[in-house]
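A favour, since you know our structure tokens better than I do. Could you add the entry underneath, on a fresh line?
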Amino acid sequence: MKVKQRMAKKLVTIGKDATVSDAIRLMKKHSIRHLPVIEGREFIGWVTEGDIRQAYLASLIEQVTVGDLMIKDPIIIRPEANLEEAAEILYRHGIGGLPVVDGTKVVGVITVSDIMAAFIEVMGILQESSRIDVILAGKRHAFENVSKIIMDHGSEIISVGMSAHQDRRRRVYYLRLTKCDVHAVAKEIEEAGYKVVSLTE
């Protein structure tokens, strides 16, 4: 999935000569925590709620402009980048959002919330479902066999996650399924020689 598919495209921007109070009003009005700073149509900086909190410590807040506070060389991401890359950057730098820049223009904003929403959608967490966590023990055709058992019970796999265990024999597969009799599915999976670690109806 690409960043451009999940980024916020309806941008709220601000100019560098705006006051900190202007930035606060915009953030409150639109319930956002980041503002791209533009000059003309060019992207020149990035100001965050955290930057503004620090400005509150200044005694002459009305004389402080966005240009004084903004990050002039922020971390950016391109619209064609993969969502995983955006997630890694946000996590590694401990930040809540990234400006999405194409050439010299800001075309969107991608936040932790956007990435979380994409993850929830892909994993099918909000739809009615069941879950089985199973160890396949590195056996040949194990996934195909388990998939067939699930389908024979009238269910389908919505999403698959895996533990990061290096030993394939101990790796856990987290299978989210369309709603089914998960106990019956688990029983047949174990009868086929695989270990069911846990299940959720």
